[in-house]
Amino acid sequence: MITTSELTFRYDEGDVALKNIQLDLNKGNIIGIIGVNGSGKSTLFMNMVGVLKPTSGAVLYNNEPIKYDKKSLRELRKKVGIVFQDPDKQIFYSKVYEDVAFALRNIGLDEDEIKRRVSASLKSVGAIEFKDKPVHFLSHGQKKRVAIASVLAMKNEVILFDEPTAGLDPKSVKAIAKIIVDISKLGTKVVISSHDMDLIYELCDYIYVLDKGSIICSGKTEEVFTEGDIMNEVGLAEPWLVKVHKNMHFPLFRKEEDLYVYFNEGGR
Amino acid sequence: MKKLSIPLTATILLLIIAPVYTFGMHIMEGFLPFEWVIIWSILFIPFFMLGLKDLKKIFARDPRQKILIALVTAFVFVLSALKLPSATGSSSHPTGVGLGAILFGPKIMAVIGTIVLLFQALLLAHGGLTTLGANAFSMAVVGPFVSYTVFRFMRKGNVNKGLCVFAAASLGDIATYIVTSLQLALAFPDPVGGVTASAVKFLSVFLLTQIPIAAAEGILTNIVYDLIQKNNPEGEEAYEIKGYK
Amino acid sequence: MLIIDKIAYNNRLSQTNPYLKFGVGFALLILSVLWNNLWGLGAIILGVNSILIAVARINKKQYIKLLTIPIVFILFSLIATIFYVSKEKSDFLFSVGFSNCYIGYSMITLMRAIHILLRSFAALSCIYFITLTTGFNQLILVFKKLRIPKEIIEIIMLTYRFIFIFLEEVAELYIAQEMRFGYINLKTAYRSLGILVSTLFTRIVMRYQDMSIALDTKLYDGEFYI
User: Fold this and answer.
1) Do C131 and C44 reside in the same domain of the chain?
2) Tell me: the pLDDT tens digits for A46-98?
3) CATH number of the domain where residue B42 is located
4) Which residues on chain C are in Cβ contact (under 8 Å) with A73?
5) Which residues form the domain of C158?
6) Set of chain C residues whose Cβ sits within 8 Å of the Cβ of A105
7) Over 90: is that where the pLDDT of B32 sits?
8) C or N terminus of chain A, fewer CB within 10 Å?
9) Per-residue pLDDT averaged across B38-67, rounded?
10) A208-217 average pLDDT score
11) Of B30, B67, B192, the CB nearest to C158
């Protein structure tokens, strides 16, 4: 499992992008990393998959600092997958099946196993209907599913999602949320970075709040979101269920259905 | 028989023929007779193989550059699908290879240009498979070679960069038109004047209608090159194919 | 924008064996260029177009539109091959005189032009037969069979994917510029086009970096398997 130890990163000419990050993915099953643009989320993800190397400190996998030679990175990336925000930047084939199979062929699996995994992952993201369609005929939401499927097929231990619902319509957001929950149920560790606070609130059980490259707050979801005025201080929105709790003095609910039950049964 | 003045006839002829050449300098599918299909297909292959050899070397060193080459090829294709507006209201398409030749050199442009022509033939019915050899020779071999040579030569002479780019792009286009005219003249000689008269005929029509288009592409290429430089202050070396040249 | 691509995946023959489609189409294409018999060429034209309309059920209106531009192009190109210069008026069926020569056409050039027209139409029909019934993804299989160098096929495959991304970007950029009067006169049009193209190019550089990273996370080892 991924942990970081005093991870500090600085781009060549720039300011320090990450300061002394202490991350421990053992703390939760679906971990949220939130922060405004420029707070360092993407840089952190890049460090976690070994694309960027820390200026000081380390990224550790199962308590071993990761090594940056080609072979070690390959091994790391067999265990840690990442789904980028823009599906067009990670889909190389114009046939859906071929793109999902791409990473599996690179690993060297045999064709039968590949067929099985591709079908399974396409089914789990609801993309099996368009497995033979050319990618450029797909909508943004459908492309996103294909991108997720191609990472799912790799059967990683950890999957990082960079803004998984950006630009999607509400129906697609729900669908992706369900996919993420299903992935987590299978035992895969999930890390999400997002601006959608309601999504984070709904899905994550542990949160890291990044501000200007440092973790200014971390903890269980309810604790972080009710911690003083942190959200406003760093420039983030609050999940609406939290706002209801704070401003209407209702108990803090994780699920909106519970709020409705509470309200309709006259609990005030 | 009335004797019309040359300028008038020329103008009438031009107005009839000019719309044709707004579709670029591609020779259409099936236009060339069989002998010339074979000859030009054979002639362009060595240049293509030269470029392919270079590409294989680049890929052996860094296989990720396959993505870069493909991106450039798609870029040139899309560039050639744009419409260049003109003062007369009609529009034309840039060939796209001028900019590519200046940035990446003529050898790999032979390959990139040919692949672009393949896509144009298959996705746009522009040009053709039987005429791929001929079109590749004019547009992917001669054109880029001229653009590149003019550019390097003028740069060595310390000529103003904008002028270099303009000259390189437009002269590259003009070289393409000349080759195409010759290809047509060879395939369709005049009954009386033979290939020579036919060549003069095609050349005069082409050059008259195409010079403004070549100039237009020259201007556009210059604007683009200038902006690319401004946006990438590390200099043109930053996006030259790594390891090439 | 790429109508041919859309039709290729959406007709009655799109699932048919691509080797068959390409084989037949290409054979007829070569025949069109080889065969000098005008009746034969006419037969090819009729036959191939019938298959396209009747069997593949290509939309007639769309197809006629697709045929129009190349045919008009061919017709105009033919004009240049018909006319020529001679000192003897008697050569010509029709001519216009100048100070010391005549420009006109004769039976020779006319017959030649008819041959070219039929040949081009036949060849065009054959090429449309291939491209309108065979999606590009299928064509790539054909390229593989034809033993085209592996690197070339990889580039072709990737290029096909990227073309559509760029076309979308160009459309967005163009509309955004137009909304701000980027194309109201010639000068602004060139400047806007220049910005459009250079923006597209700069995005290539960034896209390449992002895609390289994506390749690494997908354990790319240098091969694109086809």
Assistant:
1) yes
2) 999 999 999 999 999 999 999 999 999 999 999 999 999 999 999 999 999 99
3) 1.10.1760.20
4) 216
5) 148-217
6) 223, 225
7) yes
8) C
9) 95
10) 93
11) B67
Give the amino acid at B99. L
Q: What share of chain A is helix, strand, coil (3-state, %, to 5)?
A: 45, 20, 35
On whether any CB of chain C is under 8 Å from the CB of A217, the answer is: no
Asked if B209 and B17 count as a contact pair (C-beta separation under 8 A), the reply is yes
Distance from C-alpha of A84 to C-alpha of A92, rounded to nearest angstrom = 13
Helix B106-124 and helix C107-133: axis angle, to 10°?
80
- Closest-CA residue in chain C for A133? C9
Positive or negative: CA dihedral C186, C192, C193, C195? positive
Which of C108, C141, C174 terminates a domain? The answer is: C141
Q: Say if the Cβ atoms of B66 and C154 lie within 8 Å.
A: yes
Q: Which residues of B touch C80 (CB under 8 A)?
A: 17, 184, 201-202, 205
* pLDDT tens track for B141-186: 999 999 999 998 988 888 888 888 999 999 999 999 999 999 999 9
Q: In this structure, are C167 and C96 located in the same domain?
A: no
Pairwise CB contact (< 8 Å): C95 & B1: yes
Is A72 an 8 Å CB contact of chain C? Answer: no
DSSP per-residue string spanning C140-181: HHHHHHTT--HHHHHHHHHHHHHHHHHHHHHHHHHHHHHHTT
pTM of the model: 0.89
Q: Is residue B16 part of a domain?
A: no
Q: Is residue B3 part of a domain?
A: no
Kindly report the nearest CA distance between residue C125 and chain A, in angstroms.
Answer: 25
The complex's ipTM works out to 0.93
How many C-beta atoms lie closer than 10 Å to residue C88's C-beta? 10
Q: Give a yes or no: residue C173 inside a domain.
A: yes
pLDDT tens digit sequence for A14-39: 788 999 999 999 999 999 999 998 88
Contacts of B219 in chain C (CB under 8 A): 190
Q: What rounded mean pLDDT belongs to chain C?
A: 90
The answer to whether B123 contacts C131, with C-beta atoms less than 8 Å apart, is yes
